[in-house]
Amino acid sequence: MLISTSLSQYLSYYKDKRLLTVFAFGISSGFPWVLVGSVMSAWLKDEGLSRSLIGLFGLVYGAYTINFLWSPLIDRIKLPVLNALLGQRRSWIALCQTCIVAATFALSLIDLKNGLAIAASLCLLIAIFSATKDIAIDAYRIDILPEEESDKATAAAAMATSGWWSGYALLGAIPFFIADIPGFSWPLIYQLLSIMMAGLLVITLLAKEPTSHREQIQAQLQASYEAKLASSSATTVKKIIAWFAVTLVEPFKSFFEKNGVKTALALLAFIFLFKIGEAFLARMSIVFYKEIGFSNAQIGQYSKLGTGIITIIFAFLGSIFNHKYGIVKGLFISGVAMAASNLMFSWIAVAGPIEQLYALAIVVDGFTQAWSLVAMVAFISMLCDRAFSATHYALLASLGNLGKTMLAGYSGFVVDDLLKGDWAVFFVLTALMVVPSLVFLYLIRGKLYAIEASYHGRDKG
Q1: What's the first-to-final CA gap in the chain, in angstroms?
Q2: Could you read off the pLDDT of 128-140 as tens digits, one per residue?
């Protein structure tokens, strides 16, 4: 057995107060997706805009796919004043949260139908600040647990996943519940959402900054680069070149040296492909529910509140499996289950708006999402070098988001133009999209088992 820790000891990990902070930051990661995702889709739909345009609006999520480009700066740059008050990780989180609050409130002040360009720009700003915030949050989760406590990685992944879904689904259910109440408009709802985001900022101010040897390691690397430069170079020039080398080159060099080029490329392909099918489904889900005949209240009850509760529960159960049998096996099983669960939505498309069937689909989908998310978060964390935790996690997570956002943004065109509105076939296609990723995972399974054993400091048995 890869991990020999007893179940009772594993469950005791959740008493760790640091994991409560991880949970709270997970909420902060999930909530902005509501602001530019499901709520914005519902608002656009109620304004009479087309499915294709709603799908394109989701391209603002592209910020999550490229945030690795500036992630090295989150590892290296200290914000004036804020860094002294809050520390490296929390200062970046707090700054981004403040900007999200402002942009969300600004959305409530526009006429959406006549100001689509402004709305799209504000959503893009929210996505950029949210993607930047997530860099610091993911690094915080890795940094808060020392290497000798790697056994808590799956527990931390479960808390992060549960927090994300608490922010995305539980808090995200609120606007759908109140949208049908007379007197509540979408602009008023966005004002409420900005207040909720401000509450998450307070949590950041109260959290504890993690301790890390990151700065010492980076200083050693910079000194090494400076020593390699020609002695004739000016000291200032040496320092600048060395700083950029450590900041921009060393993180990527470290990843490929650690895993080998072939394995590293296969890892990147797997992460890119794994969530595409789920993303296609998620991007069109609100439009599908409304077209098939479900009300805003039902969407809030099942797709938001129901999915959130189910995912939170199964995230902990999935973490137990991943902890006991290993993260790699957890990815295999969750990938197959995730594909199968998408077929439930084809059933709804054929059967119509049957509430019991809707509830069953949400239970199955919530289970598979929880399992796959916990496995993926723990998997990516396992691959990160702690000296560059922000950069490595952002590189890998943003690659996964690339498929989820850039390609899924065209999901509306697939439904409208390619399938002529055939939702049943669309969901079958989303189920098949996971297959290529599992092929890559199978091809490098041996190397991954070795990485996992090394990560936990044990031999695979």
Answers
A1: 5
A2: 999 999 999 999 9
